Amino acid sequence: MSLRAPRCAWACRGAGASSFAWHETKLEAVRAVLREDGLSDDDIDAKLYYDVAWFRTRVERIVLPPSALYWRVRAVYELYGNMKDKKTDAPLFGEAAWRKAKNVLKEILAGHCSDPPGMSFYRHKLTKRGEIAYDHLGIALLECSRGTNDAEVRSLRS
Questions:
Q1: From CA 64, how far away is CA 60, in angstroms rounded?
Q2: N or C: which end of the chain has fewer CB within 10 A?
Q3: What is the helix (H) or strand (E) element at residue 1, kind and residue range?
Q4: Angle CA 25–23–58, to nearest 5
Q5: Which own/partner contact pairs does 141-148 have at CB distance under 8 Å and 24+ positions apart?
Q6: Average pLDDT of the segment spanning 37-49
Q7: Which residues lie below 8 Å from residue 23, measured CB to CB, with a gap of 6+?
Q8: pLDDT of 139 above 60
């Protein structure tokens, strides 16, 4: 099965999305501001679903610890792995894909995919004057260095 196949793309996105959890108290603080601005809880839930990028610049996320991350990613693999491709009627995951998936799960259990305890990959976005940047609602904007070499540089300086 090609990684370009639609269901394979869903599985990859699902595995990635299942890896993260919102910082609960910060998410609730942003929800409170949105409620004050007139949004209902249903509106906020819809915004969180359809406009994740908006929340990612305002609320920290963590990659879950191995004990939680393993089961989430495994559930995605189980859900999509045995689905059949409509064109070929072949399972989404062949032998090679299942081997790779099992290796990913081993890496997760070893703790190689989770955020290091006590390390934050977020910092406040700054204005040109070096002050914390806020959106029109007064919510501080964030930048995330996860997945960049900036994270490596910051850990070396610590």
A1: 12
A2: C
A3: none
A4: 90
A5: 141/57, 141/58, 142/56, 142/57, 142/58, 142/59, 142/60, 143/57, 144/56, 144/60, 144/61, 145/121, 146/63, 146/115, 146/121
A6: 96
A7: 59, 60, 61, 62
A8: yes
- Sequence-ordered list of residues with C-beta below 8 angstroms from that of 21, at least 6 positions apart, any chain: 61, 62, 64, 68
In the predicted structure, residue 1 carries a pLDDT above the cut 50: no
Count of Cβ atoms closer than 10 Å to residue 134 Cβ: 14
In the chain the first and final C-alpha atoms are separated, in Å, by: 44
Please tell me the pTM assigned to this model.
Answer: 0.72
Amino acid at 145: S
Please write the tens of the pLDDT for every residue from 77-135: 888 888 888 888 888 888 888 999 899 999 999 999 898 888 888 999 999 999 999 99
